[in-house]
Write a structure and sequence with these properties.
By secondary structure, the protein is an all-alpha fold. About 35% of the residues are buried.
């Protein structure tokens, strides 16, 4: 049964735009066909039927080192266009902010070449931080009692990575407090929990003490207790009882896999679960949930295209690509 989400007329214009854009979404069969095409050059022709049609020419060279950036730019351009028509930007910002924090890490180590197009953190802000002006750091970063620790800037310590993760999660939690949408709050709650699991699980796989994460990751709002509880019970096999619910079940199943990178499998399965939750917003005629569901669907579609094209260029096994395709919007 699809839950009833009240419509909000002031979101009518942007929701009307989304009605048109949704016709560009493609079914799973399209992506499977891309994987099965024998020649990589022929994939370019299929891209003319996607959101990337204005970014890729049939004669494009596929081996440039900036090629992956085309996908990121396509998503950002469409998302920013939708954002400009929203009464409130939050349903879009949730998906733009992650790459901003990756750019922030680059700036904090003094580099000025950023992997992703700057979004909510402006290029001027990032360049100022790269020059050592930490007054430009976002409040979410400075909330940590450890943020001024000189060890953060020792890139070999890994502490900065932990701090960036904590700041990103605090930013998501802030968005949760700023919305009255139960659907968006639910998505953020599960995204924060699953992200904490991935961070700590990868640390265990790398033999890193979780005490460092107890020191540099908090505070993360109502989820801070999870860091201490997961760190205190030892192995991953004990985490399911703490997490509970659907996320706990996915964690248990993925921990049983023999694959080397089972954290990636966990992330893949959680994102499919969250996409199913978010898709309820697609049935709203007009409102923030409608925008939220579309932007997540767009992000999923762009990521699927990026997975396939980059995978084909690098001759990744087609079976692996099929198994990593995320659930499509349509």
């Amino acid at each position: 049964m699809i839950p009833k989400i009240p419509n909000k007329p002031k979101w009518g214009f942007v929701s009307g735009r989304i009605n048109v854009l949704e016709s560009g979404f493609l079914p799973k069969e399209f992506f499977l066909n891309m994987i099965n095409i024998e020649k990589v050059d022929d994939v370019v022709v299929l891209l003319q039927d996607t959101f990337l049609r204005d970014y890729i020419s049939p004669g494009a060279m596929w081996l440039g080192e900036d090629f992956s950036a085309v996908f990121d730019r396509c998503f950002n351009d469409i998302a920013f266009s939708i954002r400009g028509d929203c009464p409130l930007s939050l349903p879009v910002d949730i998906f733009l902010i992650k790459n901003d924090y990756l750019n922030l890490k680059t700036a904090m180590v003094g580099k000025k070449t950023f992997l992703f197009p700057p979004c909510l953190f402006s290029i001027d802000m990032l360049l100022a931080i790269a020059d050592g002006d930490y007054s430009y750091l976002p409040p979410s970063f400075r909330e940590s009692p450890q943020w001024s620790d000189s060890e953060l800037f020792d890139t070999g310590s890994g502490n900065l990575d932990i701090m960036i993760d904590g700041a990103y999660l605090r930013h998501l939690i802030l968005y949760s407090h700023q919305t009255d949408s139960w659907l968006i709050r639910k998505y953020i709650r599960y995204r924060v929990i699953s992200h904490l699991i991935i961070i700590l699980w990868r640390a265990l796989n790398q033999g890193i003490s979780l005490k460092r994460y107890q020191q540099y990751l908090p505070p993360v709002g109502d989820f801070t207790y999870l860091i201490d509880e997961l760190a205190g019970v030892g192995g991953i096999e004990n985490w399911r009882a703490i997490i509970g619910g659907e996320i706990g079940d996915i964690l248990f199943e993925c921990s049983e896999y023999e694959e080397a990178d089972n954290t990636s499998v966990f992330d893949y399965r959680v994102m499919n679960y969250l996409s199913r939750i978010a898709h309820d917003g697609a049935y709203q005629t007009a409102g923030p949930e409608r925008v939220f569901a579309f932007i997540l669907g767009l992000l999923t579609e762009i990521q699927n295209l990026k997975l396939i094209v980059v995978g084909r260029i690098n001759r990744v096994d087609p079976g692996f690509l099929r198994n990593r395709l995320r659930d499509c919007y349509v």
